[in-house]
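Suppose you are handed a protein chain with no further information: no name, no annotation, nothing but its sequence. What can you learn? This example shows the usual starting point.
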Amino acid sequence: MNTIRMFFWDQEGRVRWGYKFLTLVLILELLLPVLLLFVSGFGLAVSLPALRERGIVDAAGILAEEYRETAEEVWTICALSIQNLLLTGLCLLFGRLLLKKKPGQLGFRGGLALGAKELGLGLALGTGLLLAAALLIILFGGARIEVSGQENLSLWLLGYLVLFMLVGLGEETAFRGYAIASMAQTENPTLICCFTGLIFGLAHSANSSFSMMGFVNISLVGILLALLALKTGRLWMAIGFHIAWNFVQGCIVGFTVSGMETKSLFIMENTGSALISGGGFGAEGSILTTVVLAAALGAAVLGRKGLPHEPEKSF
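A reasonable first move is to predict its three-dimensional structure. Written in structure tokens, the prediction is:
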């Protein structure tokens, strides 16, 4: 009986962290897809009459050819935005019900001024590291940058900005806030950062043009973001970093974002090997991005405060 009990609970009577972490997998792989399917289906059913009236779809609900490309991109933005809103809500709900953690204990703490400051620092850090990686890729002959000249760019960029804000919120709530809270009882920051980082990398494995370098770099980003969250005890800096990293990568510089194409101010045309340019996966697939991220991670680990010693007090 004691053996069975120890299999599920630790010596302090807490459910073992692995089972808590599995609830995040349940959210990501079961609850989120089902909810997204339901919400998307409902949205389509409600909007179909208006779309038919405007000639965007025919009586059978098939998109007219002239609207197809635009509609697919709008659908991608809307679906991913809704997905990350649902992800945020599910993690906050299950965090309260299963982990017994309030939003503040999942990283949403600190006053407005502190939150804005850390969000701004994260935005600056994400922008700086992405631009450094892009510059190295260009200097080493991996890509050539050109002005895009795309039409209606301001509206598209606004849409993608909203999307990447929600992606930053949703993924940080899940992969940093919820994941770290589920592992906090280990009191092992190295394990927390590395494990959540690797899971973050694996979570992108279904993306278009995913590669081993893409896995390495996204895992490094995940480790860095977990370290930022643990050092501050809050998610704001990690959220800011995530937003800037994606938006600047896709909508300013012109790389694909983890394999996803976006509208952009500039276009990054690959001219070198995929190892240098990142190939179809974007800057996150380049070994030069690995160098930038490794340097940033090393600086964060060796910084003034070093690794946090008591994760359970932060999350």
